[in-house]
Request: fold
Amino acid sequence: MPVVDILPLVHGILYVCLQSALLTGLFLERRREIRGLERAGPAKGVPRAARVSVVVPVHNEELRLPALLEDLAAQDYEGLEIVLVDDRSTDGTAGLLSGFAGGRDNVRVVCLKENPGPNHKQYALERGLTVAAGDLLLFTDADCRVGPAWAGAMAARMEDPRVGAVIGPVFKSWPAGQGEGSFLYSYQCYDHVVRFVYLAGAVGLGAAGGGFGNNLILRRAALEAAGGYAAVPPSPTEDAALISLIRSSTGYHIRAVYGAQTHVHTKPETGWKALINQTLRWNNGGLFSPEIVTRINYTILMLTITVCTLALFLMPLYPPLWPMPLAQFIVMLENTLGAVFIARGGRGAGKGPESRSSLPPLFWIRELLVMPFYMTLMTVLGFLGVKTTWKETTMGPHA
Reply:
């Protein structure tokens, strides 16, 4: 058999092996989480002596913010500080924040009249951190929902002083009865959990290069060791850049956790145009990451997906390419296994039956078949330099 005919088989085998390694990292992280909580013991559980500051950047979130404020007010972590950064809002956001802060000694509101960017969210977070007093810094977004034990559960994962950052899962959710059966919604649910499969798997293998900025807790000492938030290079995905910076420039460990109380829920995009814009921005953050290891790893992954997907269309012209699409299908089955493991049947720490984090695995068949094509499109658009927007700001692939 000619060497050129063997290459697709070798490529397919290596691809499946790489994915299997990531899946191993995923399970290793869950094992570390359980063992860490067991070592802490019920007496320690949540490190109540540690001061935790929740930092939330807000820009024109009058409609979605009240639900999060309700959740933050219900947190059962003693001494929790809440820092809300109003980033030049022009709607009723300022009034909501002022009303929430009134009568609460643990709430601080930072009002920005100007934001030079280039990543406006990154600048807003930096300003919020300058007034936060916590030893542990916890982040989420205005469109998220969290359970009452969320802050304490995330803080409990920081018991080990060697851990500098912990990334928790984020599920796409929607109210029951709205969007049921819609492929737009179901795909987002699947896509978001699969992203955490890759993220947590890489963390488990010691190659953390991404994160969910709306469910992330940092040790202030680790952030300072990395040069402070101002040292994070401009990126369309500032959370991933931050994780990469801590991993590459400090001796602190990065961890990923799955426990139900650590779950965060966020609403999906309501149209394909908005979803493509969001996905492309995230994808560009990996493809053009300012941290070289993350950039190389993510680029290799996305190019592998792209090559295997394109091979499916070229098979009629060159049949020996068949191992590559087959490997793609096996990889997506492995991703689905990891997604089911994380989602635990689709229920997380949301507000009971009205919050849904994912669809039952039976309905993920169509999603796993579509995802490689969708990610191939995002990769091609990224390398073509297609720009994205975030909060009315146009962003190129590099910022």
Observations:
- The chain has one domain: 3-395.
